[in-house]
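Interim report to the steering committee. The following record documents the input for anthranilate synthase (640 residues).
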Amino acid sequence: MSRTHRSATQHPLLDRVLASDGSLPFALLRRHGGTEVEVLTGDVVDVDLLRDIPLDGAPVLAVVPFRQARERGFTVHDDGAPLRCIVVRESERVPLSDVVAALPHEPVAAEPLGFDIPDDEYAGIVRRVIEDEIGQGAGANFVVMRRFEARTSAAPVLALASWFRALLTHEVGSYWTFAVHAPSSATETLSLAGATPERHLTLHDGVARMNPISGTYRHPASGPTRDGVLEFLRDTKENEELFMVVDEEMKMMSALCPDGGRIVGPYLKQMARLSHTEYLLEGRTAVDPREALRLTMFAPTVTGSPMENACTVITRHETRPRGYYSGILALFEPDDVGYSLDAPILIRTAYLHDGGRVTVPAGATLVRHSVPEHEVAETRAKAAGVLASLGLVPRGAGPDAVVDLNAQPGVAEALTARNSQLAEFWVRPQDAAKSPLAGRNVLVVDHEDQFTTMLAHQLRHLGLNARVVRWDAVDDVLADDLVVLGPGPGDPRDQEDPRIAAVVRRIHERVSAGRPLLAVCLSHQVLAGLAGFPIRALPAPRQGVRLDADVFGATAAIGYYNTFGAQLTTVSAAAADNPVARLALEPSADADGVLTALRGPGVASVQGHLESVLSADGLTVLDALTRHVMGVPTEQSPAR
């Protein structure tokens, strides 16, 4: 590389990296807002599980592949991509200007080959996901990947150095800009460079932070404009897309942080070719950083929600394994209490494979409002920043020529207006309420949707002792003072689904024993069906929608995630011989005749997600329904 950069600098470790023949493992990292680049070298270690990452006193940089989702029991295409670690033995901080001067100024030659999935084929996948998955209750949103492919004859170190410099000088708004080279004698060398906009998880001094980013404003070729960004900020589809991923990451925060998470924002993250909206979530935790990563695999912004079924849907519609796309780049650093963690998501990244093959994966978030052709364009736009650094598409004029969208009149007000849809409970500090419910034991049954972690957190806020157990691990539904049957993906009419059969069985057990029961969303629909109300697919899915709906005479702002609904019609006689039908449940319905809730002696159910960040009145309704089923007099409910 001596012909393409200065032969020597005042930074010996950087010189060694740039002069390497490819046998030296290294990482070059510029973290958010930094004026220096961290140069790391060390030993390559492959491990099987996140808990095996060797935190023995040295810093460790781990490259976590998507296949690690199997650690949570999720379905994935397992390509055997290694969980590769660089155990850092030497490090150096170099001023950004010195790094830029030392790196190759010209892009390496590369031959573009195009996307592995053509535009029309990808658009067809988008249509099928909307119709066959979202339209059939599989979930609220899903991310489907495709890859741009190219070929280069450049040596790995030269290619990575060239790409890294281009990303440093032409991209803006990145959370991390990086180049990592991790050779191994056992498997393929891992070489990647990228500029990811999104923090997945940080842990520092006991504070966990996540950074859900969603919604995409594609800058026109002439550059972004005030009118363009304001139109984007008003777009219903883009708003709902962001709130869905906030809900999904708040599920993770509720599992990770005993006191729950708090929402801060929103913000507008501007990059060279795209802008996104984002929130910051924060809470306190004492969990080991490796376990924290396991609990939060992987970001909904690159998978979908609910998480477990999103992985199943991805496996159905992506025929090739993901490798490291949507995985995590995780830096563990020793601190006073153990290890801190800084872990961005692996997106906007180019991978150099053995033999000179280059891949740049990109995906679009598919929701009920998605237009296939727009999602095709979004994948192209997301790949373009990295492709520009490879010299495969024209580069922009540079960050100095880009208008600052955050400074434009009306942008701050449009961002603030989004919070009018949020539940105050998730925005303010969440001190436990004084309640006559205190001390009761609650079993929350998870039907493969971690909204249950948020439900459990709210129940604890109301003073109850709540725990979450997966549906197939529940032994006894009669021991607890209250059982909450939670939401989940799927068709509530499908009696062949073992989850639905389990909901039916547990409803019968609790009702027959006269024990308090609360059912949410999918479980509400099953309960309604047992009570004789017909269940039908809605004309349009209500996934990630906030509605002002009637709940027993009171209008409540609640977030909905349902494709099916129980209908307010005459109760069928066929259900008259079961214990639920004998309760003669009182229905509450919206203007379209879709049941919003049911209640009877010791039993209640609700269609909406009271725990959602969209549910401004969720805690109030949850308190009232919980008191009803437990026979506790209704008093003034806790503040929202």
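Confidence is low (pLDDT under 50) at residues 1-7, 636-640. The committee is asked to note this result when reviewing the revised timeline.
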